[in-house]
Amino acid sequence: MAGLLLAAISVSAVELSWAQDGNAGINAANNQVRSYFASGTQLMYAVGGILGLIGAVKVFQKWNNGDPDTAKVAAAWFGSCVFLVLVTTVIESFFGIN
After folding, report:
1. CA end-to-end span of the chain, whole Å?
2. Pfam families of this UniProt entry (predicted)?
């Protein structure tokens, strides 16, 4: 009986020695995820610039063809680019990215 009790105590002591503070892991994950946001926001700005160029070409083609809905298409492309830039700016300010 005493041997079984000693074995149980030694097993629980080994398990406790392997246990780590969860705060250190959470802080490490937080720092790692925040480091990804800087690259992600730069990527969103680049995608916004490319989409803006594509939209400008499409609007120019419609304008040259004399399509009557050129203003609507221009507003849609411009609005989507502005939305993408605003979302990126909000993400930067929300997560405190410098």
Report:
1. 62
2. DUF4134 (PF13572)
